[in-house]
Design goal:
Protein name (chain B): B9 domain containing 1
Low-confidence stretches of chain A: 1-95, 118-148, 159-168, 174-182, 201-254, 388-401, 603-614, 822-846, 1061-1096, 1220-1234
Mean pLDDT of chain A: 69
Number of helices of chain A: 50
Strand order of the largest sheet of chain B: 3-5-1-10-8
Oligomer: heterodimer
Number of helices of chain B: 2
Radius of gyration of chain B: 18 Å
Mean pLDDT of chain B: 77
Distance between the termini of chain B: 9 Å
Shape of chain B: globular
Strand content of chain B: over 45%
Order of helices and strands of chain B: EEEEEEEEHEHE
Shape of chain A: flat
Chain lengths: ~1600, ~180
Amino acid sequence: MKSKEEKVKIITEEYIDDGEDAEEERQKKPSKVPRQKRKKQLPAASREEMVSENSPVDDQQEPVQEGSDTRLLGMMSRRGPRSLPPIPSASRTGFAEFSMRERMREKLQAARSKAESALLQEIPTPRPRRLRSPAEKESETECGMELDREVQRIQQEHDSQGHSRVKFHDSVRKIKSKPLVPPGFPSAEEAYNFFTFNFDPEPEESEEKPKAKNRHGANQEEKEGEEEEPPVQEGVSKTDEEEWLDGRDAEDLLLGLDHAVEDFVAIRPADYESVHVRLQREKELLFVPSRRTVPTYKKLPENVQPRYLEDEGLYIGARPEVPRTNQNIMENRLLTQEPGRRWFGDDGRILALPNPIKPVPSRPPMFTQAQDIKPELETLYKKAVKYIHRSQHLIGSGDSPGNFQLDIDISGLIFTHHPCFSREHVLAAKLAQLYDQYLARRQRNKAKFLTDKLHALRNAVQMGLNPAKTPKTLETTSKTINEYKSEIRQTRKLRDAEQEKDRTLLKTIIKVWKEMKSLREFQRFTNTPLKLVLRKEKVDQKADEEAYEAEIQAEINELLEEHTEEYEQKMEVYRVTLQRWKAWKKAQRAKKKKKKQEVEEHPTDEEREEPGPGEEPEKPAPPEPVDRAVIEQQVRERAAQSRRRPGEPTLVPELSLAGSVTPNDQCPRVEVLRREDIKRRSLFLKVTFNNKEVSRTESRPLGADFRVHFGQIFNLQIFNWPESLTLQVYETVGHSGTTLLAEVFLPIPETTVVSGRAPIEEVEFSSNQHVTLDHEGVGSGVPFSFEADGGNQLILMTSGKVSNSVAWAIGENGIPLIPPLSQQNIGFRSALKRADAISSIGTSGLTDMKKLAKWAAESKLDPNDPSNGPLMQLISVATSGESYIPDFFRLEQLQQEFNFVSDEELNRSKRFRLLLLRSQEVPEFRHYKQIPLYDREIMEKVFQDYEKRLRDRNVIETKDHIDSHRATVAKYLQQVRESVINRFLIAKHHFLLSDLVVEEEVPNISILGLSLFKLAEQKRPLRPRRKGRKKVTAQNLSDGDIKLLVNIIRAYDIPVRKPTASKFHQTSRSSRTFTEKHAASPTTHSPAHSADYPLGQALVRPFVEVSFQRTICHTTTAEGPNPSWNEELELPFRAPNGDYSTTSLQSVKDDVFINIFDEVLYDVLEDDRERGSGIHTRIERHWLGCVRIPFSTIYFQARIDGTFKIDIPPVLLGYSKERSVMMDRGFDSIRSLSEGSYITLFITLEPQLVPGESVREKFDSQEDEKLLQATEKFRAECALKFPNRQCLTTVVDVSGKTVFVTRYLKPLNPPQELLNAYPNNPQATAELVARYVSLIPFLPDTVSFAGVCDLWSSSDQFLDLLAGDEEEHAVLLCNYFLSMGKKAWLVTGNAIPEGPTAYVLTQEQSHYLIWNPCNGHFYGQFDTFCPLKSVSCLIGPDNIWFNIQQYDSPLRINFDVTKPKLWKSFFSRSLPYPGLSSVQPEELIYQRTDQVAAAELQDRIEKILKEKIMDWRPRHLTRWNRYCTSMLRHFLPLLERNQEDVEDDHRAELLKQLGDYRFSGFPLHMPYSEVKPLIEAVYSTGVHNIDAPNVEFALAVYVHPYPKNVLSVWIYVASLIRNR
Amino acid sequence: MAAAGPSVFLLMVNGQVESAQFPEYDDLYCKYCFVYGQDWAPTAGLEEGISQITSKSQDARRALVWNFPIDVTFKSTNPYGWPQIVLSVYGPDVFGNDVVRGYGAVHVPLSPGRHKKTIPMFVPESTSKLQKFTSWLMGRRPEYTDPKVVAQGEGREGGNTEAAIPKAAWICLPAWLTLSFCPQ
């Protein structure tokens, strides 16, 4: 870098700035450049000049410094930190700046001197300058050169407006500055240096140029904004400028602008270099490898011959293909390098690895058409196979295919006897059987065969007898003939037997057929289509006779021969014996003689000889000669017996089903019944394999011919060796359960029996069940007879035949899927592997490694050949001793490496476990926040609850549920709930469009019209209408978002106080009767009551307290028995676990308690003297009653609005109903018809929540399809007319099936002891029954089965579960009433507060009663306070009536269902009632509840409640008054027994006993389900809130057991304060 | 961390919603909020904010510049549920109704330092042409029940999701976010 240049540049730049200032005229412009030039040469002079030039303009700057420096300084200051304000103008510069400038100038001068020492870097022009904000530059230049610009503007107005022109001018200016350099320098180089080495001055220049350009177009202010862009470019495009400046050079030249001569660059021609010279020079530098082949000797070391491994027989891989020329080039290149030779191998070629490109693709080719795929390569789809680990039966120890299949074809079933067989059927079956036998016999035709044989034998004998024809020796001939003969004899016997059998069979068939015919005639109807036709086959009489005769003759001859033979034999024997006899005789005679001689000599001898007189051979009788006549006689007899008579036609029986069965209407009743019975029966078969059911056939109805056709084939995929294969025949009769008729054991087929070849076989079965039927069916196992007198009894068992075939299936490749026997195992497998020897070697077929190695060595395998690779490796492994071959295949072999921690360790980590449990949404952890970072920070107790729950899952806890039955039920419900909730948790993550996107619905015409109409509507109408609130989906809510609004409006008929001191009035209350119920009931209270109240003292000062989720709000206190509060209470709602999802909200079990209290002021003043100075009173509140509304009701109803009956305890000490006042007023007298107090409420949730949609699915059903269609139609019709009235036709039972609703109604017996309680008072009994039903705890379905639709359980299930909602209660009550002989219906409609619900309607003599099944209350039809507000449907045991009256309020409708104008009935003349069977049991069985258990429960509840009350009073002492408690305990059973009339007795007694106590208390009555509701109820009464110092408490519990574990719980809570 | 409390780590996010490009719309404002997992809790700063209304720049870029600052600090024990910033842009339609113009979400960067993120924005589409027309007429475009759903995966899988976000109109516009954070 040249120092001079550098300096020049700086100065030039400086000068340009100044120069511009100076430029006043255009003409002066060219002179600027020479000046610069001059300046460079003479810095001092330039300064002078500048001074002179600047003087007129920049006067202010003058005193400070010379012009150039000023500019420079300006620049420097600009280069300072951004934050510094730009120097606006010299006039505004302060002293500080001056000194700054001074310093800068010094620096600059120093720099300049340094520049002379040729060090560019030291020049103080920091690079970052280019980042300078353009605005600053702008303002700077503007301010600094205000005047210049003005001048320029004037100047440039003359300029052309064109952008390019301006550019030209700019460039011209630039050029002018550039060529200043002394001509000795090459212009290009100068430019290069200029732009590359110091950018600082340059940008300044280029920057100002655009400015100038812009200036002339618009105002300066505008420019400020606009000029942002060009400077931005500046930094980036500096190099660009460089280029186009070059270009401009040329342009300028071309344009030939008038420059000074000195400005031009010297132009020289380009240097020419001759090609040769250049090549020469290139040669020195470049190397071009030759393309010629390199001789081999060059590539090898000296005196080494190339060695070719291929020739030596070693394997050389295929070398990658490289073109020869390229290879040559490479070789040449390598050779020129220093250690070039080592690149070459022994054979003088470049070392190369074998070609990695395989000739065949390593990926198996995809065959689109299955051409010639090797069978072992073929991919087969196999279903996932599940292993059953039963090792003793597992076939093939793990590695066998394990996929065997048995095909069981069940084609049908025929009964040979069935209980429903009529007598005719029995005969028909017999006939069929005989006929089958006959057919079988005829098929075999043994008689014919034997006859033929006989003929053949006879022929043979005849041949044998003819010696001319047989060249054999006589001896052999006679022997064979003898054999033949004996054979003939035997055959003949057999034939005779067969023929006889045939004949008897035929006879029996005919006999049975005759019997059947006579039976048909006798019973005058035909049951079976069987018909026997005897076909006579005419025979040629003569020929037949001849044949017959010939046969007989032949036989006679044979027999004769036989007999003669026999005779001869006998004769022979006879002769022999005779001779012997004669000899003996002779000997005897000689003996006698001898004897006579020896008698005297040897008497003992004789003795010895003598004993043989018995042995004395008889004189043999000569055998009778054969009598031909006798034989003939015999033969003919036998023939007549067993054989067809000659000339008699052959009888061929033919059994056909052509007969007609008498239709039903012509049959007697018993027969019709029998046929009906058959229709109800259906059958199915279960296939059990190794005593496990594997499949079952469809249920098929039993045909009238007692045949069932299944025609199903079951493919059993088996793993275990088949041990037994059984078909179980099940029979279903109607809707009742199935019975196992019989088991049919099927033989396991031989391994050769494969499907397709197996014949259909019939396997017989029979059952030993005893069935007696009350119709024509004969039953089974029961004796019956065909005869009228009952003789000749028959006992038949149910039996039949199953036609089936069992065979092994054949796999797709033709291999039968038969489990191999132990021996078969190996062969089976090797067959699979035979195809590929290598693979079989490679896997497990190899046992002897050494042998293999030896073989490899012997066969001289090339170890280098890759095709032998695996083998060699195997050998090397084997020979090295490590013969471990894994016999498994690992899928993720690298998984191990990625396991940074072992599984056990991972499971041990508490944090991991917590995270896992949370992500599984385990209830305890579902909303766990901020799981700690380290294991050590996680407390062990976090898991305690969870682990406890897991442990307790199967342990039935009896702590909360004292009796075990309830505990089981609760556990069961809990488990069902859990599973349901889990299911819904999953479903919760599936969102619908509406869950995510809020979208306006497309308005239909009516809405559009309405909204158009609304436009014309007044903005603020005088009578505003209620608008629906916006519903909120429950997903974005959090705690505190939801509030429960309870608006308490007024109450009626609150009990009023009775002065304690008043003497007791024994009022005789007439027991209510039903007739009174709807007539105005006269009150018997004497008006004297009111006189008891002190004047001015309010009768009662009630206030209402609402408690919900332990939050309590209360109203102000009102006065009088009919108070009006009109207050709104707001209670926060918290969802369990902060989970505001629909499912969670649905299952909230909390209740809203609305308690009415009386606020009582007591004077606690102890000293009368102080009365003047102070008032000491204590406020006590007395519980009067409560209304309990479950949250679920509010949630589903959205709002609850109405008047509710207050649940007032039967005994309210100190209070009485004030009636006399009401009697005066006419209007109220109507209301007073029903007793009790009422409160008007309005309850809602804010914001309104969308109740979850219940799953509306189509459930499968066993109902008739027609019936279902009819229900749909009925529903649609009803919905069309009255969309608001719910029409109930089908409901869903517990197993999820749709059931027609009337099936639920059936008279069912109530517990006998309830009926016995009031034997002659039906009303009381009815009430008691209603009470019994109401004592079964209420559990809404939505709570138990959140989100799932309403399920109806039958009454026995209901009683077993001891929990259900309105429908179950109503059904049970209705069934009881039906069995008690009442006319009762189930009423569906809307009630408050329940919403859609079911009540029971009964018809008394002249009026109707509406029963609330859940609390046992009943109301007259015209009772205003009846909670049932609308009636939509009546359901009876055999029909459904839909209300089509104008009104649906029970007050205004007529309950006479016989009027079709008022009630639309489901079953009518067009659709008669088909007689649906009930889903209810035949009768309910009640077991008495254990009294002891009840007593125990009673004690425990009492203990728990006492503890609770003490807990609730942590700051006070809780004293228990034992005396009072025991008294109350005695009193409670009375209440249970007689709920109505005890109050006054009780009061009297209490007064007597506890005269000096002020007593306030009441009994609570509840059905028993759990302890928790009891606690809640006691808490809500607020008895424990009394904090008087000397208060005592009394608490008694009584549990009354009803049958079937229904428990009624009474709790008497009282507080006592001693009166002074 | 201190021995007293449970260990947490902090994530400090500061940055700004710089600008957006909605070629068709003008006068938009932007709302941001954070979606984070169960183990996260904001300790300082604002979790949510609504920006000023901005107009398009007059130059060719037509950018809507907000330069709306974000400054929030989270503490957490678990990187799972790393915070996401959810941006939703609103503006008036032809009739002057305020309608949503775009939703977008992005994770807070995982590494400290300056980051610039460009988020494509989208809006749910009406399910039918008719609805599209009526919603245009009534000025009630389909909106997400909660803008936070765009940061959640739930409800997008499966069959009904196509319905859930039918044809997300991917109006690709850069909403710029400069973020810096330093975990402790």
